[in-house]
C-alpha cells in the first residue's frame, strides 16, 4: 500500500475525515487488525483509533490511551507490536506553543506565482480554500509580519504535505515586503509579497518561460504555517497564525494564489527614469566639484531631487544639464519641464500621503500618477477628491462610518495614531481626565464645540472637532472588542452549539436525514428488496439585528465624567455577550416549539424527566439519551451527554457528583466526569439539563451574518457645520446580527422539577 501518513500524524475526528481515500484505507486496515487483536469476534466491541502515525496507532481503551507500533507487509498484512500506555498533552491555545499537527492543525495552502528574479506574488487569499480551511481577513492581516523574510523552497507535493524537503539544495529564495491588500467585501482580501529568487537556483528561467507563454497556472506556491483554529460549520477557520515555516513551489495550489506581475523585467519607462536619475546625479556632482555632497542618500527620491534643485540653482545656465559621457545631446538634457515634473511628482507624493484616504486608495493613486508622463498638482487634487467621493458611497445610508475595520478613511495618519494611543490609555485607566484628552486632541480649550474656538495649529495636525467623534468611536471599538474577546461566563454557550456563517437575512433551512434499517438477507439467486428511504426533519431560522444607541454629550466632556465615559466600551461588550448567551440558553430554559411542531422537551421525544438532580436521576437521564433512536431507522444512537447544565444554585451539587468519595475506586457517576455549565441568569433553582457534544449530535445552530461573530460600532450622526456635534452630542450605534434554532432534539435532555 504505497501511501504515507504525514510526519505529524492524523489526530482527531476532523483529521481522519479530511484524509485522502488512500489514507482512510490504511487507517481502516490498521483499525481492523486492532479490532481482531483486542476484541476477537465480539460484535459488541469497537476499537476507536484516536490518532494514526507512520509507525504507530493510538487507541482508547477503558479511559486509557494505548500506543500500538505496527508494520505493513507487501501483501497488506498488519503486524502489531506490544502496546505502551501514553498520555495526551494539552497546552493553552494562547501560548502558541502547541504543534499544528496536534491540537490546532497545519494549514498548507498554495499560491501561483511569477518569473525573473523578482516577482510580485499572491501568497494566500482570504475565504474558503480547496481543503475546507477558511482564512478570514483579520487572521491574514495580522499574519503579514510573519511572512517577511520567509524562505522559499521548491518541493514535490508529497514533501510539502509531509512538511519535508527543507534542504539547502531546495532553497530558491525568500519573501520580502509582505502586505495585506483589502478586497471588495469581507474576507476577500489577500497577502501579497515580493518574491526574490536566487539566480543560482535556476528556477527563474522556467518561471519566465511559463509566464511569457501564458502557462503560469502549471504550478503554484503553498504556505507551510502553523495557526490556531476553530470549527466553523464544515470548515476549519484560522484564528491566528503563529509561525510561517516557508513558502513552497509545488504543482497543486489550493488557496487562491496566482501570479500578479513580474517586478524585475525589461521596462523602457523604468530605463528612461534611470537615465534621468543618472543625469541628475551627474549634475549634482558637477555643482559639487565632481563629488556628491556628504551624507546624500541617492536612493531617497526626495533627497536626490532636493540636491538636484540646489545644484541647478547654483548653475548659471539653470535650465539644462549636459548629457552623460558617450550619450547624444539631443533629447538627453534635463529641461525646465523636467524640473517642473520633478517638483510635481514630489508634491504629488506629499498630497497623497496627507490625504484622508486609506492606504489601499493611496497606493492606487500613486500607481496612477507614477505611470503618467505629465500631470499637474490640480490633476492630483482632483483625483484625491474623486477617490474620496467614491469611498463615501460605501457608508451606511450615506452618513454613518463603520468604526471597526482598518480600511476606513483616515487623515493625518501619524497624528491619529497618537490620538488613538491617548484614548486607549484613557479607557485603560492610565489617564485620569477625559476632558484633557478632548482638549489635547481638538484644541477646543473652552469645550464649546465650536470650530472658531479651536487651536488652529492643532487643526492643521489633521484632527479637528468634526472628527473627534470618529477617533473616540475607534477607541471605544478597540476597547469594546478587547473586552468582548476576553473569556467570561457569557461564553459558555459556544460549548453546546455549532456556529456557521449566514449570507443574508432570508430564512435558513437545515435538513436532517434519517437512517436506513437493517439490510435484509438475500438468498442465492434471490432478488434484492428495496430499502425504505429515510424521512427528514427540517429546521429553519433567520438572523436578526440586535443593538442600541449610546451618546457622549458635550456636558459629559465639560464635566469630565470619567467613570461614565470609561465604562461605555465595557458595558457595550458585556451587553452584547450577555444577550447572545441568553439567546442560546433560552432554547433550553423556555422549551420552545421546534421543527416538528412540538416542544423541544417532551415525553414523546424521550428527553423530559422530573426528578431532582442526584446520582440516580443523572444516570437515568443519561441512559435516556443513550437510548435515543435515529429518525426512520429506529436504531439507537448510543450517544450520551458531555455537559451538565444547571442554575447557579445547583453548581455545587453537580460538581460533587463527579468528585471521588473516601473510597479509592471511582463510582459509575464519578467516571462520567461531565463538564458542569452553571447558567448565571436561570432563576429556577431545581431544573437541570444535559447536552451532547455538538460534534456528535449537532443539536443547536447559531448563524452570524457574513460570519461576523463580534458586534460592530457605528457613528450615527454627523456634526453640523461649525458645531462639535448635532444636538451637542455624538451618537454611537452598536449592532450584532445573528439567529439560530434547534436542529435535533436528541442532543438535549431536561428535568423539570416541581
Give a short synopsis of this structure.
With 754 residues, the protein is an alpha+beta fold. Helices cover 31% and strands 23% of the residues.
Model description:
31% of the residues lie in helices and 23% in strands. It has 754 residues and is of the alpha+beta class. Among the domains are: 10-88; 100-262, no CATH class; 481-754, Major capsid protein gp5 (Major capsid protein gp5 fold, 2-Layer Sandwich), CATH 3.30.2400. Strands 7, 8, 9, 10, 11, 12, 13, 14, 15 and 16 form a 10-stranded mixed sheet that branches. Strands 1, 2, 3, 4, 5 and 6 form a 6-stranded antiparallel sheet that branches. Strands 17, 18, 21, 26, 27 and 28 form a 6-stranded mixed sheet that branches. Strand 9 and strand 10 form a beta hairpin. It is globular and about 105 Å long.
CATH fold category name of the domain at 481-754: Major capsid protein gp5 fold
The proportion of residues in beta strands is 15-25%
Helix count, DSSP H or I runs of 4 or more residues: 20
**Structural class, from helix and strand content?**
alpha+beta
> Terminal Cα separation, in Å?
62 Å
Features:
alpha+beta, ten-stranded mixed β-sheet, 754 residues, Major capsid protein gp5 fold, six-stranded antiparallel β-sheet, 29 strands, 31% helix, 20 helices
Element layout with pairings:
Layout: E1 10-11, H1 12-18, H2 21-39, E2 48-52, E3 56-61, E4 64-72, E5 78-80, E6 84-86, H3 100-104, E7 106-111, E8 118-125, E9 127-128, E10 133-135, H4 137-143, E11 151-154, H5 157-161, E12 171-181, E13 190-197, H6 203-212, E14 220-232, E15 235-250, E16 259-262, H7 268-287, H8 301-314, H9 336-353, H10 359-370, H11 377-392, E17 401-402, H12 413-427, H13 434-442, H14 456-459, H15 468-485, E18 498-502, E19 508-513, E20 536-541, E21 544-553, H16 554-558, H17 562-590, E22 608-609, H18 615-626, E23 643-647, H19 651-657, H20 668-672, E24 675-679, E25 688-691, E26 700-705, E27 712-715, E28 729-742, E29 748-751
Parallel strand pairs: 10-15, 11-15, 18-26, 22-29, 23-24
Antiparallel strand pairs: 1-2, 2-3, 3-4, 4-5, 4-6, 7-14, 8-13, 8-16, 9-10, 11-12, 12-13, 14-15, 17-27, 19-20, 21-28, 23-25, 25-29, 26-28, 27-28
Helix pairs in contact: 7-8, 8-9, 9-10, 9-11, 12-15, 15-17
